[in-house]
Write a structure and sequence with these properties.
The protein is of the alpha/beta class. It is 38% helix and 13% strand. The chain is built from 13 helices and twelve strands.
């Protein structure tokens, strides 16, 4: 490949925004860790840094449940990443050594306790989450470790957003809004059929809260961020979690009102995180005003990448789907990973509307050789536009 084809003519922020807008870019944008579903397990991150000869002394954990690492700028630069997590970090931290050589910086009020079976337990009030012996993440309750008021948190996030905007050229987003579908509550999903008025009333209450909250985000940092993330899984591996027609009636109106409000009051994009087989929801999400879809679970039912790109690629941005994390990244060879990345990038990249990221987070047991192969191949393939 000739050197002139590797000359970047855009900033990272410009590159991502132009790709979202389906405009020509100098190369395909790349993400690692801009969202809590585009990141990397702290264990895999430790192994990756060690493999690359980088320090492992200060690995920070912004997400205690999925146990994700903050991706440092040395790694972002090594893999030519264009995006960064908007999270100022915990106000007070402690060091935790779950096993072996792994030591991490975690929130001070987490206080994991070791059990006789080798598992780690964290309990707050009546909620508990547990990391099994030799596990890579916590399950059980999704506990919060914030030790500040909503106003204090907003101010710190706004300050960090300003720093990122002025001192770097990364794309970033504000994360934390509900997409009006309770994917983790089967009773709620049943009530969509038995008590639809109750669901509407609940979504009205959620919407009122979110309008007030997102308005403050726009006011305090809207000029320094580029997107707002909303989150609710709409699909399982095998199919949708509810009938799309029912979702269209009970949930879609609120997603649309949220998107309309953000688009009317800012230049921010809407990033929707939804796992699973969601093919039949995509036209509805586009109508609602969703700009970006993540993680693009290509191994789920009816999520063929070529069909997704051909049907929706000019109307929405696919953020993810760049490597098969279920049956390639964690178990294949580096050559297998590179081949998979080349195949998927060749499908999703043409015409823009694509930000490279694997399907969801990199799991804790993924070999560093495979991670390097994935991102190095993505960068090489990013230039053949």
């Amino acid at each position: 490949m000739s050197d002139h084809r590797k000359t970047e003519t855009m900033t990272s922020r410009e590159r991502v925004l132009r790709s979202i807008n389906h405009l020509p870019v100098d190369r395909m944008p790349i993400d690692l860790g801009c969202h809590y579903s585009t990141g990397i397990s702290a264990f895999a991150y430790h192994n990756l840094r060690k493999y690359l000869g980088l320090s492992t002394d200060n690995i920070q954990i912004p997400d205690m449940v999925q146990f994700l690492a903050r991706v440092d700028e040395d790694i972002l630069k090594r893999f030519h990443c264009d995006c960064i997590l908007l999270n100022p970090g915990w106000k007070k931290t402690s060091r935790w050594n779950p096993r072996g050589e792994y030591t991490f910086s975690i929130p001070f009020n987490a206080n994991p306790s070791l059990r006789d079976d080798g598992s780690w337990l964290i309990q707050k009030d009546d909620a508990v989450m547990r990391m099994p012996n030799n596990g890579f993440f916590f399950d059980g309750g999704w506990l919060s470790f914030s030790d500040e008021t909503a106003e204090e948190s907003l101010a710190r996030y706004a300050k960090e957003a300003e720093r990122i905007y002025k001192d770097t050229d990364y794309f970033t987003m504000y994360i934390g809004y509900h997409a009006y579908f309770c994917c983790d509550d089967i009773d709620w999903q049943c009530r969509m059929l038995t008590d639809p008025d109750e669901i509407i009333a609940g979504n009205e209450r959620i919407h009122d809260r979110q309008m007030n909250a997102v308005g403050k985000v726009i006011d305090t940092m809207g000029n320094h961020i580029q997107a707002i993330a909303i989150n609710s899984d709409l699909g399982s591996q095998a199919g949708p979690l509810c009938r799309p027609a029912v979702w269209e009636k009970l949930c879609a109106p609120y997603v649309k009102k949220f998107c309309d409000f953000v688009h009317s009051n800012s230049d921010l994009k809407i990033f929707l995180h939804s796992c699973g087989a969601i093919h039949d929801f995509i036209p509805l999400l586009i109508e609602c005003g969703v700009d970006i879809l993540n993680p693009v679970q290509i191994t789920a039912d009816n999520m063929n990448p070529t069909e997704l790109k051909n049907k929706f690629g000019d109307k929405i941005t696919f953020w993810g789907g760049g490597c098969n994390t279920q049956s390639i990244l964690g178990v294949g060879t580096p050559d297998d990973v590179s081949a998979n990345v080349r195949e998927l990038v060749s499908i999703f990249k043409p015409g823009g509307g694509f930000v490279f990221n694997p399907v969801h987070n990199i799991m804790g047991d993924v070999k560093p050789e495979n991670i390097v192969a994935m991102f190095d191949t993505a960068y090489e393939e990013s230039w053949s536009l």
